[in-house]
Amino acid sequence: MTDRAKHETATPESAPDRVDPSAAKNEVQIGGKLKHARLRKSWTLRQVSLAAGCSESMLSKIENGRATPSLPTLHRIAASLDTTVSALLSSTTDDTSVVARPEDRPTYVVKDQGIRLERLITHVDGNLLQGNIHWIEPGASAEEIVAHQGEELGYILEGEIVLLVDGKSFVVGEGASFHFRSEMPHAYRNEGKSRAKILWVSTPPTF
């Protein structure tokens, strides 16, 4: 098993949902979209697994809704299929809408990792910005290092996180902001006792 594969965990049926259950209404089911993207590319599970650095069995579970990939794993799979996380998390919402109300925004929930991603900007080909709210439960982390093209800006709405950028660690609390080039390896974790909530904007929408 590769080091990357160790980060991929099937969601236990008996495990408690560590994220706000209200997110379920607009939760994006990513498995079918990944399978559709793979079939459009005419790739096998093995081809995707080799390109994305994860196991065939895990990919099969993800496609069939029996496992939830971490955000870095999802990014690698999307890149191998010549698409982006932004495109995969898109919904049927009118892409010409100026306003995205809370009850309409799609979300991606990593159930067994205590992380929820709430989309703020509807995916449209040609958009230069990507915006999300990251909800991070106490003890949750996205510590699998990721790097990609672009630039990122974050603002801590609630709580506190430890931000890892280019080998350095920063404690970032409510009201603080951060900015870095996306090519710099980055990750985060919540070591506090309360949920963290981050407004996160990046460009271009490669993630």
UniProtKB/TrEMBL annotation:
Residues 1-29 are annotated as: Disordered. Residues 34-88 form the HTH cro/C1-type domain. Keywords: DNA-binding. One of its GO terms (cellular component) is cytosol. It holds the Pfam family HTH_3. GO terms for molecular function: DNA binding; DNA-binding transcription factor activity. Residues 1-20 have a biased composition (Basic and acidic residues). Coiled coil: none annotated. PANTHER family: HTH-TYPE TRANSCRIPTIONAL REGULATOR, METHYLPHOSPHONATE SYNTHASE. This is Cupin domain-containing protein. It comes from Lichenifustis flavocetrariae. The lineage of its organism: Bacteria, Pseudomonadati, Pseudomonadota, Alphaproteobacteria, Hyphomicrobiales.
